[in-house]
Backbone:
């Protein structure tokens, strides 16, 4: 009897130890549930967002949607200027002979060099698309992307969840996805900013925005007025001059001391139109065959429901964003690449480092009141310049990257940027014939 009790005691002891060991092993039910992340866009911003989230699949579920059939976003060129194969407005603003307007050394993601040295600093858009495809394959991102899928609406439900309404563009089937985190990486170079010109309805010639420009041959032998003397305005004017008889580059700002082709002339801004005559602010009258607006783009986020807390004022000012990309009212939403110029792909790279640190609890946002205070425009700054930060872009990037646990920009970046940018303003016709050279591990840079 005593022997039997002794054996039973040993067995009970084994069972107790086994029970403790079982309790010590974490079960699926004891794990913190993964947060679901939905990303819209598989262009430069959406790809970097996908890559960063995919590095933490122990914490997140991930799905990325894109309405096109491949990665690339606006870098997918098409001759069409109206609708794509699915009947949706064409996304790309690329023109046939476009080369990037800044050195590729500034365009690349910091974690993936764009091209080998033999390509030169300025490459055609087709090589940028190739780079984005290579980036996608290198980091194995394609498996997270659902192509041919249009995000029709994003709304907030239950106070803290994002309901994403999608439509399969091949089958027309609709679906709803519920997620915890929403990231917009769909870009903002689609809806053209077209200023009102009194009398323009009487102008018999062709009127178009640069979003619709594809080939300079379309203007052969014509007199063309290009309104807007930004980077695109200069570049498009020069390309049109290859075939046009005369190009007038119109701007309300002072003329830039730039070297231009003989048949490109800088003139004052347009005050009004009277038939085929365009009347300038200084009283000059120009008879023209075509008018092209190189006047930039409006911010447009048509899929965001108004209950998301994001407001776009006049297409120029996206309200209630902390550090210009995190929703203040609902900080589980980020809208990438709002500041201009975003300069290539570096901005969403820094933004995602910061945002991921917030999502993973490594970084705490200020109070709502402090974020709202920081979001206010400085006195005297117009809405049209709310997101413009060419001189501040370096400190903006470094601040986000360092706070998110990343690296600052390389030493050559800021001095190299001003070297090429000043040369661009001086000679927009030929600056792409030069290259950026980096020496001494990034400590010295030349543009020649």
Residues:
């Amino acid at each position: 009897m005593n022997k039997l009790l002794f054996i039973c005691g040993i067995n009970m002891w084994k069972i107790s130890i086994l029970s403790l060991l079982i309790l010590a092993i974490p079960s699926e039910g004891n794990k913190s549930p993964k947060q679901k992340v939905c990303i819209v866009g598989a262009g430069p911003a959406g790809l970097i967002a996908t890559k960063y989230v995919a590095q933490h699949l122990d914490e997140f579920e991930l799905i990325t949607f894109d309405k096109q059939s491949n990665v690339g976003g606006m870098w997918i060129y098409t001759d069409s200027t109206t609708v794509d194969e699915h009947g949706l407005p064409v996304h790309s603003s690329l023109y046939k002979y476009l080369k990037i307007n800044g050195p590729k050394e500034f365009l690349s993601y910091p974690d993936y060099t764009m091209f080998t040295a033999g390509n030169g600093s300025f490459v055609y858009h087709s090589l940028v698309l190739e780079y984005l495809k290579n980036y996608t394959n290198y980091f194995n991102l394609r498996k997270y992307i659902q192509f041919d899928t249009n995000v029709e609406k994003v709304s907030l439900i239950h106070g803290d969840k994002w309901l994403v309404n999608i439509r399969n563009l091949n089958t027309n089937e609709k679906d709803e996805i519920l997620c915890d985190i929403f990231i917009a990486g769909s870009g903002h170079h689609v809806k053209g900013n077209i200023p009102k010109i009194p009398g323009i309805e009487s102008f018999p010639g062709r009127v178009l925005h640069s979003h619709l420009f594809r080939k300079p041959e379309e203007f052969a032998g014509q007199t063309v007025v290009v309104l807007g003397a930004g980077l695109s305005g200069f570049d498009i004017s020069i390309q049109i001059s290859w075939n046009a008889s005369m190009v007038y580059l119109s701007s309300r700002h002072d003329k830039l001391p730039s070297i231009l082709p003989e048949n490109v002339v800088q003139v004052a801004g347009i005050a009004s139109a009277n038939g085929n005559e365009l009347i300038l602010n200084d009283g000059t009258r120009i008879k023209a065959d075509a008018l092209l607006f190189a006047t930039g783009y409006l911010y447009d986020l048509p899929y965001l429901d108004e209950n998301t807390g994001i407001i776009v004022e006049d297409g120029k000012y996206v309200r209630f964003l902390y550090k210009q990309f995190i929703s203040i009212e609902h900080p589980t939403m980020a809208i990438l690449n709002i500041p201009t110029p975003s300069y290539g792909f570096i901005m969403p790279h820094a933004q995602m480092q910061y945002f991921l640190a917030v999502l993973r609890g490594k970084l705490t946002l200020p109070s709502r009141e402090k974020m709202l205070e920081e979001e206010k425009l400085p006195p005297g700054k117009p809405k049209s310049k709310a997101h413009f930060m060419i001189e501040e872009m370096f400190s903006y990037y470094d601040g986000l990257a360092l706070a998110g646990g990343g690296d600052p920009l390389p030493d050559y970046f800021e001095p190299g940027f001003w070297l090429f940018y000043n040369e661009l303003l001086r000679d927009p016709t030929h600056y792409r014939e030069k290259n950026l050279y980096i020496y001494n591990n990034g400590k010295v840079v030349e543009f020649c």
The radius of gyration is 27 Å. The first strand starts at residue 35 and ends at 40. The chain is about 25% helix and 20% strand.
